C-alpha cells in the first residue's frame, strides 16, 4: 500500500530538478502522475522541447507506475486550464496540484529590464495563479455536484520570497506573492475540500549548482543534504489524505530539516488615540523597533 494509492497528481516543471524528484516520489507511493514541463533553459529560453518530461514518465513506467507527460506552459492561461483537463481526461480526475515550475533571470535592481521582470513573474506568480485558479474551478464544480474532493495544492515559494535575496528582486517578489496566494487560496478553497500549503526548498539543481556545489551534510557523510530528493517526502505527505488538517502554511525544507516558516506577524505597537504629528514620530519609531525582533537578513546582503 502506498500513501498516495489511487490519487492523481500534477507536478509542474517536473522534467528535472526538484519537480522530477517529486514526480518519482509520488509515483513510488502509488499516485498516477501528470509530469508537466516545457523543457526550457534556466532563464526560460527554449532548450530541447519537452523530452525531459518524457524521460521522467519513462522512469515511472519502468518502475511499474502510471504517468503521462504534459507540455503545457503554466504561464499561459489556456494551457494551464488544459493541464488540469489532461489529468481529468487521462486519469479521470485530479487530487493534488504541485506548482513547482520556475525560471530565474538574476539582475541587480538598477539593471533589471522590464522583460526580465515580466518573464520571471509570469512563470512563477501567474503560473501558480493560473493552475490554482483552474484546479479550484474544477474542485468547486465537483463539490457543488455533491462529490466533495479531498484535494491538495502545494506551491513552491523560496527563502528569497520570505527574506528577500540580493540580485533577485523579480524572483523574490514573485515568490513572496506565491506565499500570499497560498494564504488566500487556503482561506477560499477549504469550503470545497481543498488544502493549500507552500514549501520553500533548498537543494542542488541547475538553479543553485554554483551556490550548493560543495555542500554536503555536516552530520553524516553518506547523506547528501542538498539532494533534491530530500525535498519531496514532505510534499508527498502534504499531498496525501493524512494532511487534511494542515492548510495555509509555508514549510522550509532542506536535507533532513522540515521547518515551519512564521510569516509577517504584528509586533510592537503605539497608539496615540489621535493623529500623529510627523515631528513627534522619531522616538516613537525608535522605541517600537527597540521592542521588536530584528528581521532575518536578506540573502546576499
Ligand atoms: N533549488 C533550490 O534550492 C530552490 C530554492 C528555492 C526555490 N526553488 C524553487 O523550486 C522550483 C524548482 O526549481 P529547481 O531548482 O528544480 O529548478 P530547475 O530549473 O531544475 O527546474 C525547473 C523546471 O521548470 C520547468 N519550467 C520552466 N518554465 C516552465 C513553464 N512556463 N511551464 C512549465 N514548466 C516550466 C523547467 O523546464 C525546469 O525543468 C522552482 O520554483 C524554484 O524557484 C528552488
From TrEMBL:
Ketoreductase domain residues = 7-202
| One Pfam family named in its UniProt record | adh_short
Gene Ontology molecular function terms on file = oxidoreductase activity
Q: Which domain of life is it from?
A: Bacteria
Q: Which Gene3D superfamilies match?
A: NAD(P)-binding Rossmann-like Domain
Keyword Oxidoreductase in annotation: yes
Per UniProt, the keywords (alphabetical) are: Oxidoreductase
PROSITE patterns per record: ADH_SHORT
Q: What family does the Swiss-Prot or TrEMBL record give for this protein?
A: Belongs to the short-chain dehydrogenases/reductases (SDR) family.
UniProt xrefs under PANTHER family = DEHYDROGENASES, SHORT CHAIN, SCP2 DOMAIN-CONTAINING PROTEIN
Q: What is this protein called?
A: Short-chain dehydrogenase
Q: Which organism does this sequence originate in?
A: Mycolicibacterium sediminis
Classification from the root reads:
Bacteria, Bacillati, Actinomycetota, Actinomycetes, Mycobacteriales
Amino acid at each position: 500500500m502506498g500513501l498516495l494509492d489511487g490519487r492523481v497528481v500534477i507536478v509542474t516543471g517536473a522534467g528535472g530538478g526538484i519537480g522530477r524528484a517529486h514526480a518519482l516520489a509520488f509515483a513510488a507511493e502509488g499516485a498516477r502522475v501528470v509530469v508537466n514541463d516545457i523543457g526550457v533553459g534556466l532563464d526560460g529560453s527554449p532548450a530541447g522541447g519537452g523530452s525531459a518530461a518524457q524521460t521522467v514518465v519513462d522512469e515511472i513506467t519502468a518502475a511499474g507506475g502510471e504517468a503521462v507527460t504534459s507540455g503545457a506552459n503554466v504561464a499561459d492561461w489556456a494551457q494551464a486550464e488544459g493541464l488540469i483537463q489532461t489529468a481529468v481526461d487521462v486519469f479521470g480526475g485530479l487530487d493534488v496540484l504541485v506548482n513547482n515550475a520556475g525560471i530565474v533571470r538574476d539582475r541587480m535592481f538598477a539593471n533589471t529590464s522590464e522583460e526580465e521582470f515580466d518573464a520571471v513573474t509570469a512563470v512563477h506568480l501567474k503560473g501558480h495563479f493560473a493552475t490554482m485558479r483552474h484546479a479550484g474551478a474544477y474542485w468547486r464544480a465537483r463539490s457543488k455536484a455533491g462529490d466533495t474532493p479531498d484535494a491538495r495544492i502545494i506551491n513552491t515559494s523560496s527563502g528569497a520570497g520570505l527574506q528577500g535575496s540580493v540580485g533577485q528582486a523579480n524572483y523574490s517578489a514573485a515568490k513572496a506573492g506565491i506565499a500570499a496566494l497560498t494564504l488566500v487560496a487556503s482561506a477560499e478553497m477549504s469550503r470545497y475540500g481543498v488544502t493549500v500549503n507552500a514549501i520553500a526548498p533548498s537543494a542542488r539543481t541547475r538553479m543553485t549548482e554554483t551556490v550548493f556545489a560543495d555542500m554536503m551534510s555536516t552530520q553524516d557523510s553518506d547523506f547528501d543534504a542538498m539532494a533534491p530528493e530530500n525535498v519531496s517526502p514532505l510534499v508527498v505527505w502534504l499531498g496525501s489524505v493524512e494532511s487534511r488538517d494542515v492548510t495555509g502554511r509555508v514549510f522550509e525544507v532542506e536535507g533532513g530539516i522540515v521547518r515551519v516558516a512564521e510569516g509577517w506577524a504584528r509586533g510592537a505597537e503605539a497608539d496615540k488615540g489621535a493623529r500623529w504629528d510627523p515631528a513627534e514620530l522619531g522616538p516613537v519609531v525608535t522605541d517600537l523597533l527597540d521592542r521588536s525582533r530584528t528581521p532575518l537578513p536578506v540573502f546576499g546582503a
